[in-house]
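Tutorial sheet, problem 5. The two components below are modelled jointly, 450 residues in total.
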Amino acid sequence: MSSWALSERPRLRSPGRLKYDKARQSDLLLLPERVVELNEAAGAILWLCDGNRSIAQLIQELEAKYGQTGLADDIVDFLASAEERGWLER
Amino acid sequence: MTASLPYALTAELTHRCPLHCPYCSNPIELQKRESELSTGEWLSVLEQANDLGVAQVHFTGGEPLLRPDLERLVRRARELGLYVNLITSGVGLTDERINRLVEAGIDSIQLSVQAASAELADSIAGFRAYELKRQAAQRIRERGLPLHMNVVLHRANLHQIEEIIELCADWGAERLELANAQYYGWALRNVNELLPRREQLQAAEAAYKRALERFGRRIELIWILPDYYEDFPKPCMGGWGRLSLTIAPDGRVLPCTASSDIRSLTFENVKERELAWIWHDSPSFNAYRGYDWMPEPCRSCERRELDYGGCRCQAFQLTGDARATDPVCVRSPHRGIVADRVGSVEQGKAGTPDYAYRGR
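Model answer (structure tokens):
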């Protein structure tokens, strides 16, 4: 697997889905036979992986949302590990 | 004590089933149609489960397709944002039915298979289901749904394991559970017919490992351990009342599908109590949470946080005491019960099995 290019548009690997769980007050990644409780950053990134946004757009949106710059490397690293775990597809 | 929140709900919509598999996980006393929860009661259960923190629902049975309201329940579960899986024999999964399920938002379907050849599969199921299953697999794939499959492994089909894996890959399965039989309910009644010999099991496990190499990421293979041949018990359900819950067709709420056989406990019913109360506060769900209930040798064992003392249902069924160390454990004073059973299979002559079929 090669690393992501900023122009690519990642999406959750079918049939995976996200759910905000009120009881736990956190985002959950729902996969067949498995539920992953996400931390806030992971949830924020994955909600934007809709197959429409490019990674460049996604970084821009998250930097604006959190009022920070220089998040690109962390986000790209996270996307690589999420793909490795089978959460994302291209 | 404070309980964690459940991730998954197993909704047993009915015990009725066209198949008669001799290892069925349903209890010996099957609930009749008249005692099944109504559509309205299941809709309320789904809402309560979602509020409680459940994220996945597995509709199962019996055969859940026998409930004409299945699509309505799937639709409501999806509206709530739950991941919805259907566990089915495939019997009754017609074109019309699968279209309605897809339209209602089903996420994935898990299809069972009994063996690789039609003749053996149908004799195990006690019903001519093989061809219907093949068609069901095709319909699932044609609708673009992920096909997950499962097979229960036992003495009569372990020799076909490679052909079973090939068959499921051919049918387009993305995931296959190779589940060695677990001895509860019907399977315990038929244990002498089902329990394989050690040699047979070792050959099958070797074939599974070869298949892992051969198929790589093309199909996810899951080997569910044959616990009678292990030295330590399985961490059943990841701990009693910790990760998931099951609701029986009549509305009783159970920590797992086998636990209704524990006669020393009374299980609460969603017809009488709120689901959240049952999960957090009922005596049955709190009975084996944490470690304080454990007798020796579990109480002082360094493995207790790994396996929670094993399975409470197995402890009850084999020793009469649900708190006892799971007799699969080499440290259990009751290990002899399991060892004797395994020993008698090793010495026995395996002829044509004479199963007690469920529902007959």
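Marking note: Chain A has a mean pLDDT of 93. Full credit if you identified this.
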